[in-house]
Inverse folding.
């Protein structure tokens, strides 16, 4: 009977690790979504009038609130991820992360310089689409890095 108790305890620990992994993955995705929301709101405040997007004091104050909440969500997400994988470099899929952040950064050119549009969207909408797409790819990078790390380090326990 003692062996059965140890097996159950080991199973509970595995379940706890999986839940922690899921929380870390979700935190990474939440951080990317928060960054997208924050920069989108910043673009709204800065460029809505320029592109004829309806904006007044109340909607701009709402955008400031979105930025504040997004920054808090981003900090929480990255802190949670960092606690789960302290000291990890996340470089197995670095190219995917780089592509995501290049797409994300290029949105500035679309909204500020009016350099290009995609899919028949306006400059403002192109910038928001690129923000979202770039950060989705960056979130996918974090997701794959965590899964890769877990696969190669099945016994890793950050609390040890």
């Amino acid at each position: 009977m003692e062996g059965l108790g140890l097996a159950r305890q080991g199973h509970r620990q595995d379940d706890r690790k999986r839940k922690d992994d899921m929380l870390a993955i979700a935190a990474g995705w939440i951080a990317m979504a928060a960054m997208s929301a924050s920069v989108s709101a910043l673009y709204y405040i800065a460029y809505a009038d320029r592109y004829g997007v309806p904006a007044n004091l109340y909607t701009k104050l709402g955008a400031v609130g979105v930025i504040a909440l997004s920054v808090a969500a981003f900090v929480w997400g990255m802190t949670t991820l960092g606690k789960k994988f302290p000291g990890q470099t996340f470089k197995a899929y670095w190219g995917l992360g780089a592509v995501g952040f290049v797409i994300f950064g290029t949105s500035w050119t679309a909204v500020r310089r009016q350099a290009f549009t995609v899919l028949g969207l306006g400059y403002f909408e192109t910038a928001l689409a690129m923000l979202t797409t770039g950060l989705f790819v960056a979130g996918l990078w974090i997701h794959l890095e965590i899964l890769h790390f877990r696969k190669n380090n099945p016994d890793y326990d950050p609390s040890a």
